[in-house]
Amino acid sequence: MHDEQPSERGAWVVLGGVHLLNRTAPRRPDEPIVLVRVPPQEVCRPATTVIVRWNALGPCPAEALHLGGTRLGAVRIDGGELFPDAIAGPALRGLVGTEAAPGLVPLCYLAEHPGGGYHAYAQIRFHPEDACFVRTTREPVGHGPVEELRWLGPVLAAHAESSTALNNHLRYFRKHFSGTELEFKYTLDPAPDIWSASMELLKALRDGKLEDCRPEYREEFQIHHTENYLFDVTGPEPEIGYASFIPTVTAGHVLKRKWFTEDAFARREELTLGLDITPDCFETFLREDLSLQVRAMPPFQRVRYDIQCESMRTGHVYGIFLDRCALLAAPEVVLSQCELEYLRSRSILDHDQDEVLLEMKRIDHWLCEYLASHGWATEHTFYSKRSFLRDAIALRPDLATP
């Protein structure tokens, strides 16, 4: 349930020296903090992730204060002029001075809480066009007027406590269900052109058609075009599933292993990277090095478009994949699918794993209605590539790989 809807209560983008985030220098009482009053930017409340797009802010009141509380001045700045080229623009330079301006960055997004105090969202990505913030406060901090900066100490302390996660180059903080793939599958029949279908679905997410969710910040879309060499693992009993070799762009192959006796929502999964072996050695490697009983399946070409969907409420990121597999030896034999898969979680705050499952069900319900409305699919089908290839061979024994 939603606690509340966005309203016109106070929200600010707080600017300060980058050393306050990376802790390369101590705080000084004479350095400036800039409070830029902005329209509330949360997609939902409570929120975990907030995206601020500078050009969308319009004219914003900005006030500069020393850390000690002395007021330096105030000015009105259009959001698009705050950080051209990710460097403080002329109005900000005039406000804080030429010495402080070069190191000025967004520190956090600050949202006023109805009961008093503020929630803070730490800046993790910053570009000339926008910035991404994630919530670091479990409870409101710093009761009192925002200009008194009572919230600043707790906010910087919370950032320091999680600095390894907040300052690393990926900003993906955790992955629940490690070693397990969670996914819903739909067989698309009749199969659409997956490129145009992907673009239409991506636009629906951008437009907010899926409540509380948006495309993942600056990672919204990926293209995969690979060949796959899949082996049905028939034994020993604990190893039943499949092994698939996927060539990489540079050299070598990735080995993907999945374990299961039946196609299902949750399956054990493992990747082995950088295998320097050629296709003629795949079966030997599986039999002799891994001691598996295997049967080669027909190689296939896989074209997949990945839409990365992030929950602004929880920070969990899900992939919605549109996937087309065609046999290399028989291109007319095709499997087209849509998959919903849990990928990772951006939040640094603890979340119950069950929350992922509940949210996946909600997104899956929306996706099911979306696919049905386009006439592509009306129900789940946990139909794996392994099952597809087995069925293809049953219908066309000539496709069986010697």
From TrEMBL:
Superkingdom of this protein's organism: Bacteria
Official protein name in the record: Uncharacterized protein
The organism of origin for this protein: Streptomyces marianii
